[in-house]
Design a protein that fits this description.
95 residues; 81% helix; rod-shaped
């Protein structure tokens, strides 16, 4: 029974090789994580830029649609008022 429990002596070269493989594997995993993080950040910034560009284009389109009405003169304003008054009389049957 004691023979089964006894562990063979550990070879330092085997331990060193395992440690080197572990370091290489951990370095590769860290590089993958870094690359994935950079890819996510690039995608996020691309989406943000696309949203900003769309908002800017929408704003420009809205500005292009805005039409500034010319200010009416007193004569034009009175003529429009008289036209509304006459139309109301006709609707109510008094005209």
């Amino acid at each position: 029974m004691a023979q089964l429990r006894a562990k063979p002596p550990v070879d330092p070269a085997v331990l060193q090789a395992q440690a080197e493989r572990r370091q290489i594997r951990e370095a590769a995993e860290a590089a993958e994580r870094e690359a994935a993080l950079l890819a996510r950040e690039a995608a996020r910034s691309a989406r943000r830029e696309a949203v900003l560009a769309a908002a800017e284009a929408e704003l420009r389109a809205a500005e292009a649609q805005v039409v500034v009405k010319p200010e009416l003169t007193d004569v034009e304003r009175k003529a429009a008022r008289d036209a509304r008054y006459a139309a109301r009389k006709v609707r109510k049957g008094r005209g």
